[in-house]
Amino acid sequence: MRLPEFSIDAQVLPGAMPAFRASVNAEELRALCETARSQKARLVALWGSDEMERGEGYALHLAFAVPSGLLWLTVPLPREHPIYPGIADICPSADRMQRAACDLVGIRALNNSDQRKWLRHGAWPDGTFPLRKDFKIASRFPAADDRYPFIKVEGEGVHEIPVGPVHAGTIEPGHFRFSIVGEKILRLEERLGYKHKGIEKRFEIMTLEEGARLAGRISGDSTVAYAWAYAMAVEGISEATEFPPRALALRGIFLELERVANHLGDLGYLGNDVGLSFGFFQFWRLKEDVLRLNSELFGHRYLMDLVVPGGVARDLPRREAVLLLDQLEKIQREVVTLKSIYDEHAGAQDRFIMTGKVSLELAEKLGLTGFAGRASGICRDLRIDYPISPYQGLGVQLASHPRGDVAARVSVRFDELAESIRLIQTLVQQLPSGETRIALANAAKGRAGMGWVEGWRGEILVALEAGENNTIHRCHAHDPSWQNWPVLQHAIIGNIVPDFPLINKSFNLSYSGHDL
Amino acid sequence: MYQLLKQIAKTGIKTEAAPQADETMRVLQQRLQEGILRYLGRALAIRHVDAGSCNGCELEIHATNSPYYNLEQLGIKFVASPRHADMLLVTGPVSRHMETALKRTYEATPDPKLVVAIGDCGCSGGIFGESYASCGSVANVIPVDVAVPGCPPSPLAIMQGILTAISK
């Protein structure tokens, strides 16, 4: 079909989400990105792949969210000198993704102002690329040099605070380099990649079926969202057209339960970080109630391995559905009380309001996604913009806030929490009867599928290409944290050091999902 | 303030009974003398190190501090520096990029010290296994006293692991 916005021909990808795929030349790339920017299409992901086995050199892939759906562009690159014109000046969020594609596949963006490595530390040397097909997964290299030139801020009274990778709390590892004057933060530079554990390479030694378990462990707090995105991609490849509505409704219930649990936990920590430990205890009590209910009804506290290609692994019998509705109603009542306590707590609001502000203009420029984007006034939510089953007809309400500070992110979380509870209640009450899982047809070699899901943190994308005999040729998983981490560097400028934990928690970004 | 106090009174005390130690989780024979264990057991300081997990185990470690489990009632608390710690609680697999940081954290922890590996990945490398980017289990990098399986292990299992490490 013809995509009029881009004047290119694209092939429709079978699957639940509207998605299109097109092959373009490297010379056309920048003009296409300019068009995308002028159309307010946003860059969702950028990655590379090795296509030597198909006799095609390498490939650069980009995923853009356009009004009609997701556009997957593939740019073939030659075997010798796999280079392409960089696009980070047009789409700033591409910067780190381009550097990661260079570290992993060895395809290099020209004219990128930042040519430093990104995901590679010392585990493999410069000049070897883990996602090339001739790279063995079991390769072990002696620890290579891991110097990383941080950008230095100079001037009278400026000094640096290095933090991490091992942090002071129970947090994932990463390095933060603060340049400060007195208490005031002039600049924060992040260094990530400490958790890189070769997830994408591991996919390539798995079958499409086995991959579901790994997808559910890319970021443990978003296991349902990843498993769903992965399943959606596999189902697209298998062209599963008649899909049981009961399975989709259950997936919706799981995804919203995941959103409820995470928002409850973070609202507790946001209270804790401003000295309101009451909030931590209250919200973590409610979160634990949800986790125990998950365990009782579905056999896992975080709902891992419940979304599988072809459907879901657990059903919800009527008697247990009543239990779920009862519990959610209790939680909703408590949340209303707690919200009024938070809203009226002068000390907490004083710390929340105007802290870690991200303007709408900056958020749009850097592609801030998920609830954090909505808290800066970006009115986007995949459940609303592309309402596929089970969200179709539910009238999902968008939660947003214009101010972009910690208070706005707290407010959006409260609103989303209430809306998710409503969605679960509706989905449970209208649960269609029928199958919960179907058998999938074998995947033909070279077929591609795309999964795109609004997780609690933001949009999660899985781009999958099948190899021979139901194996995986390439699986790229994209976490919304790729877009949001660079925004944190801006949100912190001009704030004081003690507010960093609060601002950081208000975004709560993933390290594991980013480092892969 | 009235509403806040009312909510506290209404909620009441939610903390449940602590679990018992579980000898099946022990990997190394107890390295510490009984006298030391008696002191540690009454005021244990733990430093958590995420050496490459998916963040699932971290969620459950957080939960051990929630009102239902309330780890601090046992005199066990998390500290910000390995130099203040008696025990390292390590989640894995250990990524190659965290290998040095984990070893340095272990060296920075004063003797006598204990190490508890958390989760299937911490125990064996789990689904991520060993590869160019992953060292696999925590025991492949530093000595481990107790290993708690599970994906992720429940808060009770994590508490059992900690209690096993400080029991004779």
Structure, explained:
The complex is a heterodimer of chains A (516) and B (168). A five-stranded mixed beta sheet of chain A has the order 3-4-7-6-5. In chain A, strands 10-11-12 form a three-stranded antiparallel beta sheet. The longest helix of chain A is centred in the middle third of the chain and has 28 residues, at 245-272. Chain A contains 16 helices and 17 strands. In chain A, a hairpin with a 4-residue loop joins strand 1 (2-3) and strand 2 (8-9). With 516 residues, chain A is α+β, with helices and mostly antiparallel strands. Chain A starts with a strand and ends with a helix. Chain B is an alpha/beta fold. Chain B has six helices and five strands, in the order ααβαββαβαβα. A five-stranded parallel beta sheet of chain B has the order 2-1-3-4-5, sandwiched between helices. In chain B, helix 3 (56-64) links the parallel strand 1 (44-50) and strand 2 (76-78). The mean pLDDT of chain B is 92. At the A-B interface, helix 3, helix 7 and helix 8 of A face helix 1, strand 1, helix 3 and helix 4 of B.
List low-pLDDT spans of chain B: none
Beta fraction of chain A: 15-25%
Which strands sit side by side, in order, in the main sheet of chain A?
3-4-7-6-5
Low-pLDDT runs of 5+ residues of chain A are none
Count of alpha/pi helices of chain B: 6
User: For the report, how would you describe the main beta sheet of chain A?
Assistant: 5 strands, mixed
Q: How many strands, what sense, and barrel or not for the largest sheet of chain B?
A: 5 strands, parallel
Number of strands of chain A: 17
Quick one: overall form of chain B?
globular
How would you write the strand order of the largest sheet of chain B?
A: 2-1-3-4-5
Specify the oligomeric state.
Answer: heterodimer
Based on CA atoms alone, the radius of gyration of chain A comes out at 22 Å
The general outline of chain A is globular
